[in-house]
Amino acid sequence: MYCVVDALDQDKLIAYVKWTVVNDQPRDGGSTGSVTGDRTLPVASSTPPHVPAEDTNYPLFQHFLTEATPIRKAHRTTQTIVLDDLSVKPEHQWHGAGKLLLRTLIDFADKKCLPCYIESTPGAYNMYTHQGFREVDKLDTDLGQWKQGYGVYTTSMLYRDPKENPK
Questions:
Q1: Which of 11, 15, 37, 82 is geometrically suited to a Cys-Cys bond with 88, CB 3.0 to 4.6 A?
Q2: What is the pTM of this model?
Q3: Coil, strand or helix: which one is 133?
């Protein structure tokens, strides 16, 4: 995980990013796994290790996972960097912290020659597409069906191929 902190108050977190190098294909007939740093961690291939927040609409959460899983599998190669979380405190948004952390992820991906996969909120979509991500699929959720308001919420599935010769 990489973080951006306030220059005047090193204990004040402004933003952070976390990603995982996922290997969705079994190795030598073994199980699937993910790499975080230099460690390989086992991952259940059908159920992502997500834990919803206490106030989460659990049926909606389960619906999203059910709908997103086949999309995720369709757009991951043998090894793919998956953005787990990129978060910037609201009062610090639009000042470059998110872009800085995204560039860190992209530089890492290019050095490893690995593609990246992101599930984007509507608010972050333009930041990702301006950095070379392209929409490969989307998931529309009718919020009224889940008693979470009105309208359709779109989650965009984005993909970025690695650059062949990063500078």
A1: 15
A2: 0.74
A3: coil
